[in-house]
Design brief:
- By secondary structure, the chain is of the alpha+beta class.
- It has four helices and three strands, in the order H-E-H-H-H-E-E.
- Strands 1-3-2 form a three-stranded antiparallel β-sheet.
- Helix 1 packs parallel to helix 4.
Length: 146
C-alpha cells in the first residue's frame, strides 16, 4: 500500500510490530558495527598480536546510526499519533531529519578515513605485517606482529 493511502487511516498492530522489529534489528546491527570498530581501535592502540580491521565498519556503523535515530523518532511518532510519521512531521522537522542523515554519512566518511590511516600507520610503524583481502563490498586487513 502506498504511503498516501495511510494518510488518514490508523496503522495496524501488525505494521507497528513489524516496524518495531525492523528498528530493533537495525539498532542491533548498528551497535555491532560500532563495537567491532571500537574493538579494532582498542586492539591497535594496545598493540595486540593479531588485529583484524574492516575498512567499511566505521562507515556503515556511523551511517546506520543516523538511520537508527531517524527510525526511533518515527517509531515514537507512530506510537503517539497512530499515523505515518511522514504525515505527522512538519516541513522543518523533515528537513532537520534529512540534514541529520546527511551529516551522519559525512561524519562516517571522515571518521572511517581517519581511523583507517591511524590504524595502518600505527601498526606499520610498530613492525606489523599486513594481509589484505579485497572483496566486492569491503577491504579486510589483518595485521600480524612479527
Amino acid at each position: 500500500m502506498r504511503l498516501e493511502n495511510y494518510k488518514y487511516e490508523q496503522i495496524s498492530l501488525k505494521n507497528k510490530v513489524g516496524f518495531i522489529f525492523i528498528t530493533l534489528l537495525l539498532s542491533a546491527g548498528c551497535f555491532w558495527f560500532i563495537s567491532s570498530w571500537i574493538t579494532s581501535l582498542f586492539n591497535a592502540y594496545s598493540l595486540t598480536n593479531i588485529i583484524t580491521y574492516s575498512v567499511s565498519t566505521p562507515l556503515v556503523g556511523i551511517s546506520l546510526f543516523g538511520v537508527v535515530v531517524w527510525l526511533w523518532l518515527a517509531m515514537f511518532i507512530i506510537i503517539k499519533t497512530n499515523k505515518v510519521a511522514a504525515h505527522s512531521w512538519t516541513k522543518t522537522q523533515k528537513e532537520q531529519h534529512n540534514k541529520m542523515l546527511i551529516l551522519c554519512c559525512a561524519i562516517a566518511v571522515i571518521i572511517s578515513a581517519i581511523s583507517y590511516f591511524y590504524i595502518d600507520n600505527r601498526l606499520i610503524n610498530h613492525g606489523y605485517s599486513v594481509t589484505t583481502k579485497v572483496t566486492n563490498v569491503n577491504i579486510y586487513k589483518t595485521y600480524t606482529k612479527n
